[in-house]
Amino acid sequence: MSGKTAVAAHRSPSTVTHSDTVGAWVVIGAGVTAALHVGKLSPALPALGEALGVSLVQAGFLLSLVQLAGMTLGLLVGLSADTLGLKRSMVAGLLLLALASLLGGWARDAQALLLLRAVEGLGFLLVSMPAPSLIRQLVPPSRMSAMLGLWGAYMPLGTALALLCGPLVIARAGWEFWWWLLAGLTLLMAAGVLQRVPSDPQRKLATQPSPGAASGWWGRLRQTLRAPGPWLVALSFAVYSGQWLAVIGFLPTIYAQAGVAGGLSAVLTALVAGVNMVGNIVSGRLLGRGVRPQRLLYIGFGVMGLGTLLAFFVWPLTPQGEGLSSVLRFPAVLLFSMLGGMIPGTLFSLAVRLAPGEGTVSTTVGWMQQWASIGQFAGPPLVAWVASQMGGWHWTWAVTGACSLAGLWLARQLGRRSAR
To answer: Is 69 part of any domain?
Structure first.
């Protein structure tokens, strides 16, 4: 594979130690910890409304500020991670998350929480950007696809844990303790990264330099944006993340309209978010066994389009069949999330392979994260607008289906690119 379309350099299997592999697991744990901060807000919104008078509009901004950071700073943070050092970037992000969560527990108005939420968004990016490149350097080539598939599960795992644990902690100890608990957990994870992940100079000693690699911010930026690979994985992540968050985000509302109890609705939504991990893990295993990435993307986008077609079009939401359609929709949405989970695991692996140089992996991931955030920012409002115009959710499939069709076309282009 040429240096223009893939990262040629990699640590040889003989230089990868058991300690390095443990470090890769710690990196994944750090990602899950960061994802907990993204998901911690949803179960706390009712308590925040009562305690701080957070309005619905303010709640919407609190939920979207993390995505706003990703939309505006993803590429910049990726460039910074490649310059400042991968491990240092991750530790700095964890410390920012811990500090913002610690101070958030003492916040007494919505404005303070909004400011701290923006800081958490930056911390999340500093943790997530360098992770794929770190994992690539810490595991042997034979295990890279499997570990990157596991990394792709960090967000659904963190979100599901927050949705399940948050209500219990808040009910027993209050939302402030929930913030402080996650701050303490994040500090412990930062200590784990410092102790178990090799330093940047140590990893570089065991890595052969990539021929023709660009140096400096402008060189890496130009090299990344001129290559087609980063654009293809970034746009693919956008059309995936937009439709996934749109469906998962509105599930509680759909269940409420169908008369599902609040507690059961929370469990069902957490389950749908959590099974996304299965697809991520399976994709890594299959890639490690030689299955082509294009095939996994075809399956993922195809099932996502079919799942929402079955959930929202074949069984429309009508007063006469609301209860029955709710039962039938759940397996379809479950498959939508589970097999759709093969897409991020595959795209993380492709981002590492299609980065145009050794020093541009984090920059490529940053560009991909930026477009993923754009998709997450645009998808839910678009679905909500269509639902309001059509008087119900029965045309949701048209929006998600269009995203899936775009994803299938991008998968074809990625298949051609990765085959080279």
So the answer is: yes
